[in-house]
Amino acid sequence: LVATDVAARGLDIKGVSMVVNYDSANSTEDHVHRIGRTGRAGEKGRSVTFLTRSGEDAWKAVGIAEVMEKAGCPVPPEMRQIVDRMLARRQQSKALDQQWDNLPKVLMVAEKPSVCKLIADHLSRGRSRFRKGQSRAVQTYEFVAWFAPAQSKCRILTTSTIGHVFGLDFGRNKVPDIADLYWDQCKKTIEENTAKNRIVEHLQELAPDCEYLALWLPFGKEGGDI
To answer: What is the mean pLDDT of the chain?
Structure first.
């Protein structure tokens, strides 16, 4: 059976002797549910997870190692090296947090995750760090850089949306002049995909501590997207 995370919960298929995670789960909790498809009802089972040595997989290795240790499974030496390296980086990040605490905060929001990554890489010169948020659909990158409106170095959080956050339903669909819609009574609704991926909650979590907001908006020749 080849499946996505849909199969991580709610399935009880008898006789599954092994689970193979070709792509690691997004969280330790999801990892536990995935591998729980084997070894059910007192039976024994085995799980295999493919991990790379860097990037997001390296951080996921920390949680997977904790699960293995609780289950009494030995952590392979190569994986232990990765885990120890990431735990050391976590300690360094905590030390940096203390240095950054007094800096003004800037929230930058791009139109999509790929643009967010480009902005973070460019402005930080490749020295941004990944930060987890409310939504798994978008990423947040954090770094310190000079921010001209504040005339000082700032702690910059760069993230994105995944399309329109809100939709507008106008009371009148037909008007003599399109400018009349400016005064129309309209209803603002959260787009279905936005709600599903918790984009609003993600932005609300990042925004309160920030003193500046910078929006990276695309626009065509006529400015239609803006």
So the answer is: 86
